[in-house]
Amino acid sequence: MSLLVNTTNCSRLSSTAMAVCSSFCPHIPTRLTKSFPAKPHSLSFKAFSSQASNASSKDELPARVGFLGLGIMGSPMAQNLIKSGCDVTVWNRTKSKCDPLISLGAKYKPSPEEVAASCDVTFAMLADPESAVAVALGKHGAVNGMSSGKGYVDVSTVDVATSKLIGGKIKATGASFLEAPVSGSKKPAEDGQLIFLTAGDKSLYETVASLLDIMGKSRFYLGEVGNGAAMKLVVNMIMGSMMASFSEGLLLTEKIGLDPKVLVEVVSQGAISAPMYSMKGPSMIQSVYPTAFPLKHQQKDMRLALGLAESVSQSTPIAAAANELYKVAKSHGLSDEDFSAVIEALKPKLKH
Ligand SMILES: NC(=O)C1=CN([C@@H]2O[C@H](COP(=O)(O)OP(=O)(O)OC[C@H]3O[C@@H](n4cnc5c(N)ncnc54)[C@H](OP(=O)(O)O)[C@@H]3O)[C@@H](O)[C@H]2O)C=CC1
Ligand SMILES: O=CCCC(=O)O
What we know:
Layout: E1 2-7, H1 15-24, E2 44-49, E3 64-68, H2 74-83, E4 87-91, H3 99-103, E5 107-108, H4 112-118, E6 121-124, H5 129-137, E7 151-154, H6 160-172, E8 176-179, E9 182-183, H7 186-191, E10 194-200, H8 202-215, E11 216-221, H9 227-255, H10 260-269, H11 275-285, H12 295-311, H13 317-331
Parallel strand pairs: 3-4, 3-6, 4-5, 6-7, 7-8, 10-11
Antiparallel strand pairs: 1-2, 8-10, 9-10
Helix pairs in contact: 5-6, 9-10, 9-11, 9-12, 9-13, 10-11, 12-13
The structure holds NADPH dihydro-nicotinamide-adenine-dinucleotide phosphate and 4-oxobutanoic acid.
The site of 4-oxobutanoic acid has 6 residues, from loops.
GO molecular function: glyoxylate reductase (NADPH) activity; NAD binding; NADP binding
Catalytic activity: glycolate + NADP(+) = glyoxylate + NADPH + H(+); 4-hydroxybutanoate + NADP(+) = succinate semialdehyde + NADPH + H(+)
Keywords: NAD, NADP, Oxidoreductase, Stress response
């Protein structure tokens, strides 16, 4: 059950929430208004699970926040925490991506282990299950720096088994674990408008609620570890199929002599309207794909979603067909383009 809370940004949090927020971000005075990133819309709705409605009521010690993984998503998320006054320590495999954040005031540690050891709560935003495991559990991985009283929040998109593996090892140190994959892409990450799909330790969820609210517009608490990962995969499975279907529509419109720009407009006014179509349609028509969500990650999510479906014998033929298109697009060197480049897999020159 969800409770909808009408709010604009942290400046509208309750005084209790603000007090907890400032305890996480010691440089934030109780009045937060100017410290938080501006939200693009003057009014937005925040959806919280019913259990989360008092999530900011706990009195926590001041927290040092770690952030591992500074790619398209991790960088702006960490940046929003820093801009909000949080005490943030960063690490990224490619060190140069830490530099802009260090310029903004972040501290740097040379390994996930050292970040986790020096922070109360550590977030991880990694590419895929393999990198999430490597950073959490590998040599000098975060698990080596975890102990009772600390928390690890994995916001990467991974499968249920991976999340359970990481969560289990983290919890074995006495620390808490929360999975919190996000819906929303590069721009929502920059604007602090992500949607968190969380599951795991409820106490950690409550502890980091104010931090999630800096980076996002809503958060769902879904129970035991795996539920957040699974929900995220279902959402992205739908999105991947939608994009593949939209691609077919754009190309068919053009083939029959109609203007695909008009199709985008027609779609935007009807029941199947989706921001994704209006945002990406115009550039797809021009065959340009500025990367917000890399195609390789969308294909990874289709693969993981199909595995999830297989595990419960759920038939997903549409998603399976869409996945094949993403695989074709990858095989033609489009992995690092935006996932809307899947349309290229339907063009004659790319046909096998
Ligand atoms: N982009 C989007 O719109 C969204 C993405 N997501 C998900 O968020 C996660 C991150 O996505 P995004 O930021 O776009 O991806 P990027 O590819 O931009 O960033 C991936 C991050 O993972 C790191 N990484 C990759 N492999 C390893 C490894 N073996 N060891 C250590 N670090 C590694 C990269 O480090 P390095 O810089 O050194 O390469 C980088 O920090 C993914 O799980 C994705 O599915 C979720 C919602 C939206
Ligand atoms: O995982 C990527 C999600 C992208 C989006 O929600 O727009």
